[in-house]
Amino acid sequence: DLVEVTAPLGFFNGLFQLNPNASEPTHSVRVISSENAIEPLEISLIRATNPHAMDLLESRLVVVKGVTITDASGPAFPNSGNLTLTDANGEILTLRIDSRTNIGGAAIPEGAVDVIGVIGQFDNSEPYDSGYQILPSRLEDIGGEGNGGGDGSTPATIEELRGMLNDDYEPSDT
Question: Residues 16, 18, 21, 24: what is their CA dihedral angle, to the nearest 10 degrees?
């Protein structure tokens, strides 16, 4: 979906973001059009070492291909937490699992996978040039190498994204 969001702009741990409040009548999400194909931008993890390049990618839908998932504390994804993506060259990027997705508790795939997600940042100190992460919105965004992540289906719908945003949402929840 193509949407228009009306909300104040805020800054949270290195990331500029919209801060909508569901109880504020002047904040809104309006669907402009639906069924729009969104192609994620393919990036390599070498970019993760370049803060300027990562800043330009913040809030973009991207795909990283052929990465392995490491630093897991067990065979399943945490309900909320960080893991590490590593490519064949040893470059790394944080994989952030958000509790508002269906990823927590699912088995972590072995071997190389493709991951689709939005680039974010969580860095609480100046100069805000680290803490970059990729945030998949659902389990289907993490899948076998070569298929673009998951089952190749379309990205999360606006209804799914709205479901992740509730009346209790505060920027500190992320």
Answer: 120
